[in-house]
Amino acid sequence: MPAINDIDESVSATSAVLFRFLDTLACQQSARTADSLAATDMTLSQLRMLFVLHRENEAVSVNTLADAVGLSLAAAGRGADRLVGLELVDRREDQEDRRVKRLSLTDKGRALLDEQFTQHADDLTDVVATLPEDLRNTFRNTLSDVLTHLSPEKVTS
């Protein structure tokens, strides 16, 4: 069994390489992503709200959304009003409690996010395509193993 110092060094070294890798990807994509998102004329909080609604994949209350993005109920309500005005989010009364408003993505909101996700996927494909085939295969297998360890239900190989 390795000594605790060996484990700490391994964790630190792996974390450092992972950080450099993610930072490199982010730098390569940052200008394109920033330009694309700036064109939406939304605040970062409003964009985060869209991502939460996409992740939840069901209507959520304004209160739940506020908690998820770390905003006050009033700020989340204002952000939701803006997103509703842009026709990216739909707001409806809860069927069981009319005082509660439920938010969900509209088709337009889903299309906007799908466009962003497609752009990121295309950018990643461009990066991976620059790698030699043997390195791509090793990288894919290693990432698959890591994902299986972290979250087996999400691995699609």
From TrEMBL:
- Name of a matching Pfam family: MarR_2
Q: What is the official name of this protein in its record?
A: MarR family transcriptional regulator
Look up keyword Transcription and say if it applies.
yes
Q: Which UniProt keywords apply?
A: DNA-binding, Transcription, Transcription regulation
| Organism of this sequence | Gordonia liuliyuniae
List, for all copies, the residue spans of the domain called HTH marR-type.
Answer: 15-148
Q: Which InterPro entries match?
A: HTH_MarR-typ, Tscrpt_reg_MarR-type_CS, WH-like_DNA-bd_sf, WH_DNA-bd_sf
Name the lineage: Bacteria, Bacillati, Actinomycetota, Actinomycetes, Mycobacteriales
Superkingdom per UniProt? Bacteria
